[in-house]
């Protein structure tokens, strides 16, 4: 669920009831200082960042229902009022069973296909929110840093958009991304990862290619075969919060490495 208006508490609850859980899982230590996620959401809203998308992990153990991992994506009021092509987002992660640290990271929402990127830790380090002590300071520090980081991130996007990739370089990017999603015994069709799904993505710059590969890895429909069984398969959409983040951050890291290789060459060519 992704919208251009902030999600109400009722909408948040419908999508992720765990945001409103009022006590930790019973297996959590007594030393654990519980923080309801909705409290932090309300703190963040006071600084003009509003929730626009929420995900909640599916649990196999019903005993963990209501305590599972969840992710809330926030967008700044300015970007809701005047949506840019790429909006910086604040990402809040938490769970109530200690399986996920309470943390805030940075992301990007690309309006072309309504999907969100997650910035690699090498570019913007996640802020851990302490369950004991200086919580308010932790939240405020993370918000201030992401807000001040917005111009730098836009500059990074501009750099990626200025770097053109050859057919061979695009294929190398796609091959490097395969292990982020697929195990070694799964052989995939690299061309499927490079298929754009809209006219706006028919470009060869680094940023567009990263987004095309991201969409194909996350949303699925990549064909391949299992080298151990010989059976063919078609990938399905990633629904795991953890895997989604892992793929996104990995793609950003690969793009950073390509940028580091290409930029000196571009400077000499200029």
Percent strand: 15-25%
**Count of helical segments?**
8
Q: Average pLDDT, to the nearest integer?
A: 84
Distance between the termini: 44 Å
Instruction: Specify the biggest β-sheet.
Output: 6 strands, antiparallel
Q: Overall 3D geometry?
A: globular
> Strand pairing plus helix content: what structural class?
alpha+beta
How many strand segments?
9
- Name the helicity range: 40-55%
Compute the gyration radius: what is it?
20 Å
Poorly predicted ranges (pLDDT <50, ≥5 residues)?
none
> H/E element string?
HHEEHEEEEHHEHHEEH
Protein name: DUF932 domain-containing protein
Pfam family, one: DUF932
Short description:
The chain has eight helices and nine strands. It has 270 residues and is α+β, with helices and mostly antiparallel strands.
Topology (SSEs and partners):
Blueprint: H1 9-15, H2 37-45, E1 49-56, E2 70-76, H3 77-81, E3 86-94, E4 103-110, E5 115-118, E6 127-128, H4 135-162, H5 167-181, E7 186-188, H6 190-193, H7 206-219, E8 223-226, E9 232-234, H8 241-269
Antiparallel strand pairs: 1-2, 2-3, 3-4, 4-5, 4-6, 7-8, 8-9
Helix pairs in contact: 5-7, 5-8, 7-8
């Amino acid at each position: 669920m992704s919208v251009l208006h902030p999600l109400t508490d009722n909408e948040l609850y419908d999508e992720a009831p765990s945001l409103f859980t009022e006590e930790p899982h019973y297996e959590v230590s007594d030393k654990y200082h519980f923080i309801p996620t909705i409290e932090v959401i309300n703190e963040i809203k006071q600084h003009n960042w509003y929730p626009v998308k929420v995900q909640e992990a599916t649990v196999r153990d019903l005993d963990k229902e209501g305590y599972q991992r969840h992710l809330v994506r926030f967008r700044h009021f300015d970007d809701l009022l005047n949506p840019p092509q790429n909006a910086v987002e604040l990402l809040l992660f938490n769970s109530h069973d200690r399986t996920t640290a309470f943390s805030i990271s940075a992301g990007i929402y690309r309006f072309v296909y309504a999907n969100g990127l997650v910035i690699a830790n090498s570019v913007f380090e996640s802020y851990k929110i302490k369950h004991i002590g200086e919580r308010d300071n932790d939240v405020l520090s993370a918000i201030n840093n992401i807000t001040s980081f917005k111009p730098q991130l836009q500059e990074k996007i501009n750099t990626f958009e200025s770097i053109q990739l050859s057919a061979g370089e695009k294929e190398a990017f796609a091959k490097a991304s395969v292990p982020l999603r697929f195990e070694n015994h799964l052989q995939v069709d690299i061309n499927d990862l490079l298929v754009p799904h809209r006219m706006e993505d028919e470009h060869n710059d680094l940023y567009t290619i990263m987004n095309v590969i991201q969409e194909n890895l996350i949303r699925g429909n990549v064909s391949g075969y299992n080298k151990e069984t010989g059976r063919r398969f078609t990938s399905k959409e990633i629904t795991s919060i953890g895997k989604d983040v892992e793929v996104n951050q990995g793609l950003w890291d690969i793009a950073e490495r390509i940028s580091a290789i290409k930029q000196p060459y571009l400077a000499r060519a200029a």
